């Protein structure tokens, strides 16, 4: 099967054994078509509600398994008490998460990606990084998920402080616009999981899509654009621009990058 | 030949009437006498067994009828207006005195739920694509889409103009939306909140009409949600929901808290599932509530049993009050203003039991059902499947299983016919690490020969 770990050459395996350093997975073995139909019924595992999610597989240093037997075998006696605060929707090959993991070492962050092979790649990469840098990267993980449908199954109201939508699928055709990740109706769900004061980061190399996201966010009563000068002090912004694989590709091709960040506000009485 | 069942039953809030929908028509029955008083179609002449047809109070306007099946009906709180939505996406507003259509309007997508706001000025609809619209009731009598733009997932044609900045943002905007089929909606009694349900097991509580403020979610169902209704009681804080997971659940909805899970299979005394891993597909199809008695009639898909639950607002619990056995399969139910229960059934042959009426003590009142059973609805060649749940069920397979099955199929094909060329559809792209399998020599030769 294509997404199983690549067979290592004996010399490579021996080198890993002696040094204890695991080689990072190679992207070329995990390529998958860039688009996915988000309206179809994918076979996904999601909890009925956030409180029933067992995060121990994703963050073994922070969560005790829900299953009593597995809990007994765990090195933890209790949860670290932390909850996920950053979510990267459509995280792709995970460049942003890997970069932010060490910038915000105390913050749990999660990537959601619908493509199976890409998820597998990021997963292996995180495991390798954890192995090679003990004590780091325990705060980062990925799930294969359709975030447009199941975000409230994972996150409670106002749980998140940052949501990232970096280089999302442009869905150029007009009849596909409903599949775009930023729509008026989906923004209500993002506002639900995002706490007041939390930030949505968007970036795209496709100007049309950027304008579209800006138009919808500007029009939404619960989001206010953060002026560019205020973004200078935000340590996440640099990585939003440069850490993702897509962002680097745009850089190589000397393309433009359009950034727009919004703060979650409230209009409730 | 069978007679079309009544797909919907709705009580008139201020008169002793129930409104019955069947096929593309609606009929009104006097709940004191059982007589059909109004109909949008002429009554069929049938073997009456001594019964006299009573004259209709309206004149059916046969010319204006359309052919689309009524899928949703709702009535305003004052009883003055009825809204219907049919499977051709046309919504109609009716005057409930004259039974004349006041206006029609083509919705963007098929409606799965309709409800009037308290003041009757707006109709809220939940559609197949998950969008919820809050529309003015007084609609012009023209058939025109809510939005000018065409939104079809099926036609795969190119050539639609792009990037002109005028797209789906034109026209009426939804007040909220699910990325999944919306299955039901309910406005709270004070109209401050709107509760919407979807095929992906979610129940969402949002502010109304500012639907962008999501209050909470009621999560617990493990199958598509079919119906959500606010339960009677002084506090109006409890919600009841039915779903395709064989349960009815009670929620403290503003807190998103489940307070009771009620297992319908157990309550009906049905045999448990054969295997434990099997998902229970027993589906709660619809709920009818009697505010005066705090009773809930639970219609279960393709079942002859109708479950009557007693709701106790003090303990916030439902329990079995009674199980009714109807003829055929129960399809729709509602309590009328005086607390009598009207149940419609799918009857394969004949007309007896098309409609069953029960008094306040759940004794069958055959006199009240006989007119509708004798003259109501219409004869058809065969019965359509009127339960709209098939599209709600998910038939997903793990992609690994699909892949395995495909590989096995391919292997079997190659085994039977060693000369067969690899399936074209599975062409590997040039970036794939998979080494393309060498095409069998024979087929290469074939290809050259054909040239």
Automatic annotation (TrEMBL), chain A:
Gene3D superfamilies: Vaccinia Virus protein VP39
Functional pathway: tRNA modification; N(7)-methylguanine-tRNA biosynthesis
Catalysed reaction equations from the record: guanosine(46) in tRNA + S-adenosyl-L-methionine = N(7)-methylguanosine(46) in tRNA + S-adenosyl-L-homocysteine
GO molecular function list: tRNA (guanine(46)-N7)-methyltransferase activity; tRNA binding
Compartments where found: Nucleus
Residues involved in S-adenosyl-L-methionine binding: 90, 113-114, 146-147, 166, 244-246
EC numbers, comma separated: 2.1.1.33
Keyword NAD included in the entry's annotation: no
UniProt-listed InterPro entries: SAM-dependent_MTases_sf, Trm8_euk, tRNA_(Gua-N-7)_MeTrfase_Trmb
CDD domains in the cross-refs: AdoMet_MTases
Residues the record marks as active site: 169
Any single GO CC term annotated in Swiss-Prot or TrEMBL for this entry: nucleus
Keyword annotations: Methyltransferase, Nucleus, RNA-binding, S-adenosyl-L-methionine, Transferase, tRNA processing, tRNA-binding
Subunit structure: Forms a complex with TRM82.
Family of the protein in this entry: Belongs to the class I-like SAM-binding methyltransferase superfamily. TrmB family.
HAMAP family: tRNA_methyltr_TrmB_euk
Function according to Swiss-Prot or TrEMBL: Catalyzes the formation of N(7)-methylguanine at position 46 (m7G46) in tRNA.
Name of protein: tRNA (guanine-N(7)-)-methyltransferase
Organism: Entomortierella parvispora
Gene: TRM8
From TrEMBL, chain B:
Keywords, ordered alphabetically: Nucleus, Repeat, tRNA processing, WD repeat
UniProt record, GO biological process: tRNA (guanine-N7)-methylation
Subcellular location(s) of the protein: Nucleus
UniProt cross-references to InterPro entries, sorted A to Z: Trm82, WD40/YVTN_repeat-like_dom_sf, WD40_repeat_CS, WD40_repeat_dom_sf, WD40_rpt
PROSITE patterns linked to this entry: WD_REPEATS_1 (PS00678), WD_REPEATS_2 (PS50082), WD_REPEATS_REGION (PS50294)
Coiled coil: none
SUPFAM superfamilies: WD40 repeat-like
Pathway assigned in UniProt: tRNA modification; N(7)-methylguanine-tRNA biosynthesis
Bias kind Acidic residues: ranges: 158-172
Pfam families named among the record's database cross-references: WD40
GO cellular component: cytosol; nucleus; tRNA methyltransferase complex
WD repeats: 63-104, 218-261
Xref: HAMAP family: TRM82
Family: Belongs to the WD repeat TRM82 family.
The protein's role, per its UniProt record: Required for the formation of N(7)-methylguanine at position 46 (m7G46) in tRNA. In the complex, it is required to stabilize and induce conformational changes of the catalytic subunit.
Name listed for the protein in its UniProt record: tRNA (Guanine-N(7)-)-methyltransferase subunit TRM82
Species per Swiss-Prot/TrEMBL record: Entomortierella parvispora
